[in-house]
Amino acid sequence: MDFGNLLSNLLNQMAFFHLSGGNYVMIGVALLFLYLAIKKGYEPLLLVPIAFGMLLVNIYPDIMYSPEQTSNGTGGLLWYFFQLDEWSILPSLIFMGVGAMTDFGPLIANPISFIMGAAAQIGIYSAYFLAILLGFSGKEAAAISIIGGADGPTSLFLCSNLGQTQIMGPIAVAAYSYMALVPIIQPPFMKLLTTDKERKIKMEQLRPVSKLEKILFPIIVTIVVCLILPSTAPLVGMLMLGNLFRESGVVKQLQETASNALMYIVVILLGTSVGATTSAEAFLNVTTIKIVILGLVAFAFGTIAGVLFGKILCKLTGGKINPLIGSAGVSAVPMAARVSQKVGAEYDPTNFLLMHAMGPNVAGVIGTAVAAGTFMAIFGV
């Protein structure tokens, strides 16, 4: 082979000659996400792997090819990562890690938090009916609406179990993007719906929760929820197993592994594979735009419903509950709780709402999983 042919082959392999305008748009979006993650600090653990997966697939699409699409029949690296998403393995492991890191004490100490966590799920059901009106099928609408819980693993889990893998990419990216952008999206709604007086309400210190209560909680929740909605077992079961690791005090090694090493490995695999679903061909279309908008509507409605129920409880308790903690009912743990704390501290730096907000926040995790299980039961999955 002469030098001219070698040079020609080399040039033809370069991505510059094969990328479309859409690929360059998505590369720009990936760079924006990296900027937000690294410079602005918006949930870098989520955005960095997602953005880098997005960058890779739009430069080298083969990295997401299935074995049937490749000449040597091996498939692309990130395609194998994504199979773990489709099989619900990574979402379930994420829930176990979340459980191992989560203290359910604030929820146990203040059971009324369940109401705000449940109220925030209104965003999910609102988006479901809106998606139906926009022409999506029932299963598609259900998969899209769960974005309103701001819970990426649950979105992937439901989408896979309902057989809606063709829209899994946009749903996953929307869910994880909104999780990361909680500090930007929620505060305007929180400030709009509350008064200055309400935002300054100081809540009483939560009662101490006994070790026995913390041990019994994951066991009882698993039994009750999984008996009613068995399809939630992979999520609720893993969440509560991780929490039992934490609270039992007898498996410290398992708790540390689930909440650290395993958790971060899963985040890398899940984040890069989710980002790699955003090829220009799959992402830049009208359906994707609808999904992203519906996800934002669902998330906004969830935030609004949580705050409004917080206001109702504030009235019923004679001003003992700060409505800001209702926004934490979306299940982006612990980002949403931190936002409640941040907004409250803007109006009174001595006001500490974080632990109070963790109640509805962890209730939202359970609520979103239950919503997913409800949709699966409705569609006979």
Descriptors:
381 residues; mainly alpha; globular
Q: What's the tally of helices?
A: 21
Class per helix and strand makeup: mainly alpha
Helix content: over 70%
Arithmetic mean of pLDDT: 90
Q: What is the total tally of β strands?
A: 0
Query: What percentage of amino acids are in beta strands?
Result: under 5%
Largest sheet: none
Could you list the spans in which at least 5 consecutive residues all have pLDDT below 50? none
Radius of gyration (CA) equals 22 Å
Shape: globular
Distance between the termini: 58 Å
Order of helices and strands: HHHHHHHHHHHHHHHHHHHHH
Could you explain how this protein is built, in words?
By secondary structure, the protein is an all-alpha fold. The chain is 71% helix and 0% strand. It is built from 21 helices and no strands.
In a few lines, what is going on in this structure?
The chain is mainly α. 71% of the residues lie in helices and 0% in strands.
Question: Secondary structure elements and their pairing?
Answer:
Elements: H1 3-13, H2 21-38, H3 44-59, H4 77-86, H5 89-101, H6 105-109, H7 113-119, H8 122-133, H9 138-145, H10 152-161, H11 168-180, H12 182-193, H13 196-199, H14 211-228, H15 233-248, H16 252-259, H17 261-275, H18 280-283, H19 286-316, H20 335-347, H21 354-378
